[in-house]
């Protein structure tokens, strides 16, 4: 960035080419005095100017800080809003819930707005009481191991440090989490507790959504009790039935310059043609796939190793970081939606927010074509949420289908059960719903308004930047399964990556990506022992860890014991990175390689069984060697079973009771000696 408004401080010096006639007018003393006075004046002028500029420097710095909008309080006053719904969102769900709550407000004679905490100064919360019948709602997702989402990090930091008086603030919190994770809904719980500590008044109990169960139902159940509590608190009543209100208006562009049309870019127009660092979620780097090979020798699944070239991108990563990739939807699904709705998918359009004051001008980059929106911007493969069904119901011409859609979107027990079985468990995406409800033919622009954004997919990086500074490696398994309706559903990102074949110059091998930093880090001292547990594709970060330990050893560093517990189904089917691991073991970098083949014998053997088998050695590494433990892979079963195994080992060899052993392992986590990189 170039500095703006920076004055030139280069005073011109008078020319020495004075005429003899001018010299004769002054004596040497005159010249000396004039020079002295001029010098003093010049020094005083610039010295004074610098002194004046010093107090302005903090202001300049605050402008350069993350760009924030004007105060959300002023915005609410200007637009007549009294409810603000902040969202901490990593995958878009919390933002979606926030939008739904802000739209609900009109039914109660209130006006709401959804707000990204990253765009505002949250210290203004202390002023919310200036607005009549005001309320702040927080839809907060928890990311990773109890962390705030990226857009809520500043808010989280402020809450930790704040000593503000929030006694005039009324609030409610709905948390989005997953019970398979150790720190279930940590962010929602923290925000709820901390706001109360700062004096704010909770007007409805904390909601805890569980994505391992039915997050949508959890939200609806909380929401249907939340609004009556709001009505009671403010003495207002519902003004009528829930109604469909369009948030965006359609503008079709018949005569448009195609250079002004988005073709899949996430932020800046033409950013894929004219790449400029730094690269992040809004400005991904187009990396060339230089290698894409199948890792498994047999079986029905397709496990793959990809290498992305990041040369000249200035992207830096560490072992343990995640790479995010932006996939594209299958063109056949996109075409089928276009055919069913009788739409020309190449129509160029914009969806413009009817609320001119909103920061969100469009639901996705506009202008663009329906084809681009359905391919790159919208999630068409996940089962739609109930609010989408409710809004679409009006377009079903068959009374039975309309009633079915409305019922599934209702809060009645029968409706919830129907939604769970017919949509969630049957894994019906929007195309399947359109196919199974022949009278449902919504306008494509309203459908595009309602569908959530297609999200980036995160993968644990399977390489070390010390060894591969110009490439990032991914290890993934393609997702493919048959649904209860007999349809074949395919994972968006893994099937898209599978088809990324390295070529010399075609776009078919380009992957939009960026790096997300992680807390999953090797010990600072290379001599510290490490115990790595990662079955299946959970081995990914450990390939990077072992590469790095090998590199450190080559540099002459003392490297501690490097122990791996890996698991797969069958030795001659899906033993990933077999040759590489054998080589590392031969070179003495990988000091222990323990592999569990779960299906090569009658009784299933998993990584936790091998840990139990080697329990004495495991305890010695933890207790005497101060080893760091790393677990990567499935959160629902494997990570929990492994943790329980560590409780048993600690209890047995540390002479502790079960509660003491649990506390011991929790302390290892707090100290950064037990790290998790898990997913469900």
Automatic annotation (TrEMBL):
Pfam families: FAD_binding_1, Flavodoxin_1, NAD_binding_1. The chain crosses the membrane at residues 25-46. HAMAP family: NCPR. SUPFAM superfamilies: Ferredoxin reductase-like, C-terminal NADP-linked domain (SSF52343), Flavoproteins (SSF52218), Riboflavin synthase domain-like (SSF63380). The keyword Transmembrane applies. InterPro entries: CysJ-like_FAD-binding (IPR003097), FAD-bd_FR_type (IPR017927), Flavdoxin-like (IPR001094), Flavodoxin/NO_synth (IPR008254), Flavoprot_Pyr_Nucl_cyt_Rdtase (IPR001709), Flavoprotein-like_sf (IPR029039), FNR_nucleotide-bd (IPR039261), NADPH_Cyt_P450_Rdtase_alpha (IPR023173). One of its GO terms (biological process) is response to hormone. It comes from the Eukaryota. GO terms for molecular function: flavin adenine dinucleotide binding; FMN binding; NADPH-hemoprotein reductase activity. This is NADPH--hemoprotein reductase. Residues 83-227 form the Flavodoxin-like domain. Keywords: Endoplasmic reticulum, FAD, Flavoprotein, FMN, Membrane, NADP, Oxidoreductase, Transmembrane, Transmembrane helix. Its EC number is 1.6.2.4. The keyword Ribosomal protein does not apply. Signal peptide: none annotated. Residues 282-523 form the FAD-binding FR-type domain. The gene is Por. One of its GO terms (cellular component) is cytosol. Its cofactor is FAD; FMN.
């Amino acid at each position: 960035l170039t500095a703006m408004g920076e004055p030139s401080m280069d005073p011109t010096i008078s020319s020495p080419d004075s005429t003899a006639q001018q010299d004769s007018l002054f004596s040497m003393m005159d010249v000396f005095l004039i020079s002295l006075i001029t010098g003093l004046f010049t020094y005083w002028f610039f010295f004074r100017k610098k002194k004046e500029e010093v107090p302005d420097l903090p202001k300049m710095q605050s402008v350069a800080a993350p760009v924030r909008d004007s105060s959300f309080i002023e915005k609410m006053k200007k637009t007549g809003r009294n409810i603000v719904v902040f969202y901490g969102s990593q995958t878009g769900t919390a933002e979606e819930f926030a939008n739904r709550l802000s739209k609900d407000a009109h039914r109660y004679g209130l006006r709401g707005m959804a707000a990204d905490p990253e765009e505002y100064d949250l210290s203004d919360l202390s002023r919310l009481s200036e607005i009549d019948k005001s309320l702040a709602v927080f839809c907060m997702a928890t990311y990773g191991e109890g962390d705030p989402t990226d857009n809520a990090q500043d808010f989280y930091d402020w809450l930790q440090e704040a000593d503000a008086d929030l006694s005039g603030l009324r609030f409610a919190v709905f948390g989005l989490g997953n019970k398979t994770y150790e720190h279930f809904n940590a962010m929602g719980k923290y925000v709820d507790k901390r706001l109360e500590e700062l004096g704010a008044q909770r007007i409805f109990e904390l909601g805890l959504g569980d994505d391992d169960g039915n997050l949508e139902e959890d939200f609806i159940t909380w929401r249907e009790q939340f609004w009556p509590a709001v009505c009671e608190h403010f003495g207002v009543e519902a003004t009528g039935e829930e109604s469909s209100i369009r948030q965006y208006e359609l503008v079709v562009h018949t005569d448009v310059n195609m250079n002004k049309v988005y073709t899949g870019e996430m932020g800046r127009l033409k950013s894929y043609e004219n790449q400029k660092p730094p690269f992040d979620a809004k400005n991904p780097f187009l990396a060339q796939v230089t290698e894409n090979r199948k890792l498994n020798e047999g079986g029905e699944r397709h496990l793959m190793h990809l290498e992305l070239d990041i040369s000249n991108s200035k992207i830096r990563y560490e072992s343990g970081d995640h790479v995010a990739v932006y996939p594209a939807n299958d063109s056949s699904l996109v075409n089928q939606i276009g055919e069913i709705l009788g739409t020309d998918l190449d129509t160029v359009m914009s969806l413009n927010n009817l609320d001119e004051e909103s920061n969100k001008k469009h639901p996705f980059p506009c202008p663009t074509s329906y084809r681009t929106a359905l391919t790159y911007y919208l999630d068409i493969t996940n089962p739609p949420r109930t609010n989408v069904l409710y809004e679409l119901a009006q377009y079903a011409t068959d009374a039975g289908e309309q009633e079915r859609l409305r019922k599934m979107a209702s809060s009645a027990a029968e409706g919830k059960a129907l939604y769970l079985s017919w949509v969630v468990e049957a894994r019906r995406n929007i195309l399947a719903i359109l196919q199974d409800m022949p009278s449902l033919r919504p306008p494509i622009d309203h459908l595009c308004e309602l569908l959530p954004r297609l999200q980036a997919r995160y993968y644990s990086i399977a390489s070390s930047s010390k060894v591969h500074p110009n490439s990032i490696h991914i290890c993934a398994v393609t997702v493919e399964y048959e649904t209860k309706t007999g349809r074949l559903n395919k994972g968006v990102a893994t099937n898209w990556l599978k088809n990324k074949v390295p070529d010399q110059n075609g776009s078919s091998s380009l992957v939009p990506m960026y790096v997300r930093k992680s807390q999953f880090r090797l010990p600072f001292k290379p001599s510290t022992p490490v115990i790595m547990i990662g079955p299946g594709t959970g081995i990914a970060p450990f390939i990077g860890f072992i590469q790095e330990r090998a590199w450190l050893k080559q540099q002459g560093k003392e490297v501690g014991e490097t122990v791996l517990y890996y698991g797969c189904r069958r030795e001659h089917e899906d033993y990933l990175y077999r040759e590489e691991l054998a080589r590392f073991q031969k070179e003495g970098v990988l000091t222990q390689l323990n592999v569990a083949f779960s299906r090569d014998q009658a009784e299933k053997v998993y990584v936790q069984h091998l840990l139990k088998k080697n329990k004495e050695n495991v305890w010695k590494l933890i207790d005497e060697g101060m080893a760091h433990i790393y677990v990567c892979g499935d959160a629902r079963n494997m990570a929990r079973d492994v943790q329980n195994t560590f409780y048993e080992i600690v209890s047995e060899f540390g002479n502790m009771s079960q509660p003491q052993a649990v506390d011991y392992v929790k302390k290892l986590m707090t100290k950064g000696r037990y790290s998790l990189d898990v997913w469900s």
